[in-house]
Amino acid sequence: MLADLEAPDHFYFDTCDAEAVPPASSLVWPQATGEAVMEGLGGGEPVRTTGPEVAYFSYLTLPEPMQPGEVYALEDRWGNRYDLEFDPDTTVSAAIKLDQLGFLEDAPKHAYLGAWLPAGGSLDLSAYSSFAVVRADGTTALTGTATSRGEDAYTGEAVYDLDFSALTEAGSFYVRVDGMGRSPAFTIGQDALGEAFYTLGRGLYHQRCAELEAAYTPWARGDIHTTLQGGFPPDGDDYDDHAAEGWGFRDASGAFVAVSAFEAIAATATSTELTAVRGGWHDAGDFDRRNYHLAIVRDLVVSYLMFPDNFSDGQLDLPESGNGLPDLLDEGVAGMEVWRAAQDAEGGVGTWIEATSHPQIGDPGADTQPYYLALATADSSLDYARHAALLARGLIAAGDDAAVWIDSAERAWAFAETHEPSVVHMTIDGAPVTWTERPEPSSSRRLQAAIQLWLATGNSRYFDALDADAFASEAWDIYWRTNANDLMDVALAPDQFPDGWGDTAATAIRTQADEWLTGQDAQAYRSVWHAPDHGYFAMTGWGNYGWKPIRDLVGAWRITGDAAYRDGALEGVNALLGGNAQGQVYITGLGNGRASAILHLPSFVDGIDEPVPGLPLFGPQSYLPYQASTQVFGLYYDAREDFDFAGLAEELVPGRDAADADAIDAFLEETIPFWRRYFALEQQLPPYTEFAVHETVGPAVAVTGCLLGAGWTPGTDLPRDPLGAAELEPMRWVMP
Fold first, then answer.
1. pLDDT tens digits for 332-343?
2. What is the three-state SS of 172-200?
3. What is this structure's pTM?
4. Strand 130-135 and strand 140-145: pairing?
5. Of these four, 104, 142, 458, 699, which has the most CB atoms within 10 Å of its CB?
């Protein structure tokens, strides 16, 4: 089959009045479109496999350019015939890439022209220099000339910029490139970014650990999770080696013992049910709730405090809509209530709820395994105090009563100030293990809690707890945390803090934002990431790339008012919403090239063809996984005597014959450009197809909401019904 596809004379190309001729050349390339779902035996439920469905893309060089209005036939020796009619106003070209939702009226507006021929390099598109932006009624709104952004090794393309920033007219448009075709339709106006904010905000709602009622979403589901008291440490750092510091997991001799969270949970589980401890947000493949998720509360509330006019009641069609609070804050309250309910009589809060294993079933309404609440430590209680006080500040700014949250935050602070470090004895694999809490709370956590409590209460005892050394460390750490929100409150209220703190915070945020602008200028598609010559360029691993860097640009814009930061942030959003090398929106439910292969357990089992919308994937990564080498681009399996299997070594890239997976790895590393390294295998490749509510969803809601502008409300086209399988099928074909 592959040999046929690679042979030009396998195809015939003709018009009604010309002799059929083969293409001048043919290139073939495989691409995973998702994991294969097979029919159940005997008519049972469909079975999701871990093997891929693979699409083969054929790139044919035609004997002559297609002419507008002419009907062509493409036939192959297998007996297939495809009738093609080229019309530059109806034929959508995958080489034209832009934000598939659209642009704000006063924002920069760029489409891009570029194509990569797998194993063939960039496609020469220099002849296609003129473009037009066309209104929905067919009239021309603007014309322009493409400009080169250079031959870009990281996309494999010679990229051309179609700049139509001068067009500020609201409406529906498409970009037409003479002789090539057109883009999908897009919007100019507030609704373009409004649709993104709405869908992403509801994506966070869909991740609530709660029943989702049909009155509020077509993706309704149940949730029966119950919480029992546990005694395991509440933070990922608690499981690292701290033996030299005199704490952490140790054996009788004081040596570090590696203990997994699942082991610690099982060893400290009780039968005490905490009936009030419910809520929080799930992640993609887990139903746990973590201290990391508190960062979502930070994203939501700081966004409101920075741009209060952007957010209103009823914007996200939540169950709480109509209560007088902006929906953004309602979502923050929904994420915090679980931890307030978990606060013990002494004020301590354990900030991790987890089971003894990953979920064994994908339906939250049928997941009966018990979940356990972690031990309350000084650090976890300070984390809670920080975010409870921050939430209180948001509620007060919105005109609501926040006394219950301030009281709860102060109790958590008092617990951390007087708490004696816990010592927990447990048995792991039959051996005694002791976990000892950190002797002193984290200076970072104590500082951040003090900042929020000081701003929320004005009580001088919290001002007195503002530690200069800890603050200097926080300012330095902005560069790797990629979170301007960590110091935004200090930067925006310098008169509330010791002399120089405001300037230090603002400088730290601007410095990181300036680095992102430098990197953005070096990216052909203006994505927000490090420049290729930066030491961290290749660190696009699990959760690093995407929405988090844009958050720093938004923060710098809010501090300085400099439009360059806003423009950079908007350009970064454009790249994530389709203006990228693959022309993909790596978010479910948005755009023509939307993500459809996603690791999301409820979407596997809910019986709805379309995955839950508003979930941003991690997207392209720098590394090439062995699963791609051994399942998509080749089949390499060792011999198995117990199955009488002699082994398999078969490369699936036409024109090559690699004897082992190492050879195909080397070929792929050399061949697939950096920004095209995306592989759609939901369960096999979580770094690409998973998401984390605090690493992708929360930052995406914050960024789109902050950039949205004031006064937006959803139209009657939002929300919408799920798409069916036939509508989704074209969206599964991710361009290589």
1. 999 999 999 999
2. EEEEEECCCEECCCEEECHHHHHHHHHHH
3. 0.97
4. antiparallel
5. 699
